Amino acid sequence: MVKDCNEISNQALYIGIDGGGTKCRAILANAAGMLLGEGIGGPANPFYGVECACNSIEEASIKAVADAGLPSSKLKDIVAGVGLAGVNLPNLHRELCDWKNPFLEMYLTTDMDIANIGAHDNMYGAVIIIGTGSVGYVNTPSNKFMLGGYGFPISDKASGAWLGLKAIEHTLLVLDKFKGSSLLAEKICEFYQINTGIELSEKLVGYASSQYAKIASLVFNCALKGDEYALEIIEEGVEYISALANRLVEGESLRLCMIGGLAKYWRSRLNSKTAAYFSDVKQQPEFGALKLAIRNWAKEDRKIA
Amino acid sequence: MVKDCNEISNQALYIGIDGGGTKCRAILANAAGMLLGEGIGGPANPFYGVECACNSIEEASIKAVADAGLPSSKLKDIVAGVGLAGVNLPNLHRELCDWKNPFLEMYLTTDMDIANIGAHDNMYGAVIIIGTGSVGYVNTPSNKFMLGGYGFPISDKASGAWLGLKAIEHTLLVLDKFKGSSLLAEKICEFYQINTGIELSEKLVGYASSQYAKIASLVFNCALKGDEYALEIIEEGVEYISALANRLVEGESLRLCMIGGLAKYWRSRLNSKTAAYFSDVKQQPEFGALKLAIRNWAKEDRKIA
After folding, report:
1. How many domains in chain B?
2. Which of A108, A133, A195, A241 has its CB 3.0 to 4.6 Å from that of A156, i.e. a possible disulfide?
């Protein structure tokens, strides 16, 4: 995406960054939101290393700038909006703020916040993000809070990791003959190519939440085929999502979106009352991050030199 | 415990070792089972490092030998019985067997096996071990199997880590107002000195199962005071232990013991039918390990030089 460099280099430029657990997306745009370049970097979940996250942010940003035909030295003139998991934790927030970042200015917020801004395209609203983890988030002039999202294994009901854990727990009880056999247990054994509880536990030693999440779709598939235990797990997830949606909207006519890798699975399982809460996502999180950068920089009433 | 060295040094000597997650116990005895020395070493759960476990076994053994007034070089004439968690997993078993151990001979088995031998003093029987983890184990001429014990967070219902996790899950739902307040949630917040879900999750980042287990007794205390949620958790644990006891004994009049840090709590909560299954423990696991060493060495019909 190479533009005329002279034309671009005199504009006020902004980068929007969505740092995820597997990759980091960066988009470069001007103040009008016109997309000029894109870049992908490595993992940027600061839970698994602040330095790695910072490197990935810089990597993705340099690629976005290069994509627009600009040198990496240009970053020092660019205002960045960055959304990262975990920066609502004071310690991680502090560490990220201490980073000598390459930008003119960096506005740091949570992955939830940029997803919310993107989903509603700058309008106020709430989001339920369901991928490896799950969280509910609302941000309006009168209300700003999160529900769930405290991580694996203590929280994040209905998330991919939660589904995976429930399926594994069930499979071990079947293998120990505390429960009768089930399609779900069969599919899990097939997936891991194991026959005993010991073999299964050996496969899972040191497993991170993202690895449990890999089997989440098996639970939905078995539920579709009528497996009783898969249906029980899905029902518990649906109940939680319904309660979460209720709590986020609390009677207000607030815009609510569900996003993340499992959103499409869950939306198809909701009852019509809960399903009616949800609107479609307007833009992806990296666009939310971009909007945050443009908006906050304008508020500060400054001009890029 | 210093004896006459000359007298001891001509006897056939045996060491029994119980390697646990926080420490490793070693006892030294002669073929008649007369206790000659004791020693404690560091953590010896091979899950958290095979080298560390081996070092702790050697450390505890050297101390036991020194306690009997013998030099550490004596280990090469001693037959050891060693019980360790996780050595039912083929990979860990192999690694431990590859260890150039300091003994004349080393018989390696699981922590469950030595607990079982000790609990029934060489008779056949079954055990339910409930501490940080939980497992059921039976070993008779016709039956040898384990139930549960696959580790945290996928298994080990009724264990300390399971109780802790359940209590934390409950507390986060209370803090998010998905559930009404409870004594249990209050006590957990007090224990961790926190007021919000974020603060609680921050305390738990990177928590190992043993750290969840630290709050297990809070659940029992709150149940004693009638807290509804604590009682729910305890009830689920009791159901599991009852099913486990049934499965281990399966109609046979097999001796069954419950051991581990939480045994006394659980035994007091069982209904009279399940409680009637249980006998008292005869000896501690390290004595089981010692018996294993003496028995296996005798079977091989060899003599210590």
Report:
1. 2
2. A133
Are A176 and B247 an interchain contact pair (Cβ–Cβ within 8 Å)? yes
Q: Would A96 be classed as within a structural domain?
A: yes
- B240-278: b or e for each residue (b if 16 or more CB lie within 10 Å)? bbbbbbebbbeeeebbbbbbbebbebbeebbeeebeebb
> Which residues in chain B are closer than 8 Å to A128, comparing Cβ atoms?
none
For A83-100, write each residue's pLDDT tens digit.
998 898 888 899 999 999
CB contact under 8 A, B153 and A151: no
| Residues spanned by the domain of A57 | 5-121+283-299
d(CA B256, CA B278): 5
For the cut 60, the answer to whether the pLDDT of residue B65 exceeds it is yes
The span from the CA of A92 to the CA of A267, in Å, is 32
**Do B247 and A90 lie within an 8 Å CB cutoff?**
no
CB contact under 8 A, A150 and B201: yes
Q: Is A198–B150 a contact, with Cβ atoms under 8 angstroms apart?
A: yes
Asked whether residue B205 falls in the same domain as residue B271, the answer is: yes
Check CB contact under 8 Å for A201 and B172: no
Residue A144 lies in a domain: no
Contacts of B204 in chain A (CB under 8 A): 151, 154
Q: What are phi and psi of A110, to 5 degrees?
A: -80, 160
Give the global pTM. Answer: 0.88
My answer on whether B267 and B193 are in the same domain is yes
CB-CB neighbors (< 8 A) of B172 in chain A: 148, 150, 154-155
Is A261 in the same domain as A291? no
Helix (H) or strand (E) holding A140: strand A134-140
Indicate whether A34 pLDDT > 60: yes
Decide if A26 contacts A61 (C-beta within 8 A): yes
> Mean pLDDT, chain B, as a whole number?
92
List the single residue in A with minimal CA-CA distance to B204: A154
The answer to whether residues A70 and A91 belong to one domain is yes
CB atoms under 10 Å from CB of A143, counted, come to 13
Substitution target in A87, A94, A150, A170 with the highest count of B β-carbons within 10 Å is: A150
Which pairs with CB-CB distance under 8 Å and at least 24 residues apart come from B196-199? Answer: B197/A150, B197/A155, B197/B172, B198/A88, B198/A89, B198/A146, B198/A150
